[in-house]
């Protein structure tokens, strides 16, 4: 399964999620951000690659719909509701991501 994690700048939340899941043999994982300043900017290619997309906030889903209306059609997009309050690999963030994502995998 190809999994894409999205946040704003791809520095803390989505990068943490990618790190958590990247070494699982049954998943391919990438992360990206929606902002111009993102470490890795989300692209149409990322969206088409993904079987499931996890976004940290509703605004990220809306940005995907606005910028990639054709690519996002028929894609499973899950809003995790993880606010931008954490740093990279913060234990509370890790716990929240696992609790929200694991049921889908």
UniProtKB/TrEMBL annotation:
InterPro entries: Ptyr_pPase, Ptyr_pPase_sf, UCP029416_PTP. It holds the Pfam family LMWPc. It comes from the Bacteria. Residues 1-103 form the Phosphotyrosine protein phosphatase I domain. This is Protein tyrosine phosphatase. It comes from Aquiflexum gelatinilyticum.
């Amino acid at each position: 399964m190809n999994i894409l994690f999205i946040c704003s700048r791809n520095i803390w939340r989505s990068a943490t999620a990618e790190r958590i899941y990247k070494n699982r043999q049954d998943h391919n994982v990438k992360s990206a951000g929606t902002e111009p300043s993102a470490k890795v900017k989300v692209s149409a290619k990322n969206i088409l690659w993904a079987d499931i997309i996890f976004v940290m906030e509703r605004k990220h889903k809306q940005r995907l719909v606005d910028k990639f209306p054709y690519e996002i059609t028929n894609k499973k997009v899950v809003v995790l509701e993880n606010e931008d309050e954490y740093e990279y690999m913060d234990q509370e963030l890790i716990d929240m991501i696992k609790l929200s994502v694991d049921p889908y995998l």
